[in-house]
Amino acid sequence: MELHIAFDDADSPLGQCTTYITYLVAREILSKRLATFLDYPHLIRLNPNIPFKTRGNAATALHLQTTPHNAQKIVELAAETLRENAEHHGKTSPALAVLKGKPTPQLRILYSRALRELVPRAYLEQLLHTGRLGPVNVLPTPHNRGLVGALAALGAYPLKDYTYELLAYRDPRDKTPRKIPATLLKQLDRRYRPLLFATYDYAENRPLAVPHGPDPVLLGLRSLDPRILEEIASHLAHTLPDPKMIIYKTNQATDAHLTTTKTIAQLHPYDSARVKGTIAKPPQTLPRGHVKLTLTDHTGTLQVMVYKETGRLNRLAKLLAPGDTVEVAGGLQPRHGLTLNAEQILLWRPAPLHIRIPPRCPRCGHTMKSAGRGKGYKCPKCGYKDPNAKPTIKTVPRPLDPGLYTQSPRAYRHLTRPPEIRGLTPLPILVEKWIYPPPDT
Ligand SMILES: [Zn+2]
């Protein structure tokens, strides 16, 4: 039978903790030979634009083939690992969702909504109550927090668009700064890019693959080719003092949250969406360098913020002009009505720029000046006036090419697709060594 189990840690302040618990459970399943894995463990990111308190940092899932007898053992093992973790950290345990059989269409819809919207709790409870999600069991958590993430992670399987991430762990009690040399990351980047990506930010001279929080993740390397991660893992296995590593299949770096196009009238708070429209006013640069745009479509007007931190996107925003046709993708915040925080701007058509060239004086050849609205032109040198003189309208090229503009690496979300991997596809291979230490030791 198919068995899918998923975890979400909406309550945990420890960020990546869920991936570590999932790692522990996966290792036990392999060591005890309780199941075969249908695929890599999955790491699922959901809508990054909903408020922190109700957001799952990371949901994870295991996709297994097993017997009914072992399925029971696996569920007990997962629940026990969660309890132990909760005792160690003094925190509420993550949510656990279990599905016996294949994910149902309702679960897929839930995943799709949880990626792009704020899923109302009442909707979720109704789904659970009426049994429409299929043969799903959930481990109750306070206020059902984290349940959306765990259930959505079940519905994400099988992922259509994905990448891979190799996570290396340290002792979860270790809260010291991580000692991963920048030279190692630069070496890996130069050797494997673009199939290995989001490793090092050269503009900011800062590693992207090393987290800063108190979580147990030592290093996270992202790739489209799991064989590269397997190769790096086998190298790290010889150099790390206590190598604990796992390769996840993930919806990270796929822009999965930014695939729905909506009109301005269709937008709701906390949506992640794409909005196509026209720039209505000259961009306004605020004192701290953020740029405010006004976007209109046939249904309304929307304020768009392009924050300074988005780097190259912020610079593009300053160059936009009224009449430009753009498609802005990002998250909707309930501020001044609704504000769209831009993550990408697709410039469809820059409006032609018209400049007015004043006529020359027919008497002395000097450039004339406007005599006021509707009053024609006068010459500042000889005083000649012509109430019927008109300027020449000249169309000049804009310093902008149509195309997709994205954020600088420092503003990347987990789901952000870096431009260097656009157009590339992941390799659908299940490598042999996706977990360290190998289960038979
Ligand atoms: Zn003149």
Characterization of this structure:
With 441 residues, the protein is α+β, with helices and mostly antiparallel strands. The protein contains eight helices and 25 strands. Strands 1, 2, 3, 4, 5, 6, 7, 8, 11, 12 and 25 form an eleven-stranded mixed β-sheet that branches. Strands 13-15-16-18-17 form a five-stranded mixed barrel. A three-stranded antiparallel β-sheet has the order 20-21-22, with no helix packed on it. α1 packs across α2 and α3 crosses α5. The model has no long low-confidence stretch (mean pLDDT 91). Bound molecules: zinc ion (ZN). The site of zinc ion has 8 residues, from loops.
Compute the number of strand runs: 25
Could you tell me the CATH topology label of the largest domain: Alpha-Beta Plaits
Secondary structure tally, helices: 8
Percent range of helical residues: 10-25%
CATH class of the largest domain: Alpha Beta
The CATH architecture of the largest domain would be: 2-Layer Sandwich
Secondary-structure-derived class: alpha+beta
- Computed over alpha carbons, the radius of gyration is 27 Å
Shape: elongated
Q: What is the count of structural domains? A: 3
Biggest sheet architecture = 11 strands, mixed
User: How confident is the prediction overall: mean pLDDT?
Assistant: 91
Low-confidence stretches: none
Hey, roughly how much beta strand do the residues contain?
Answer: 25-35%
Termini gap: 27 Å
What small ligands are held by the chains? zinc ion
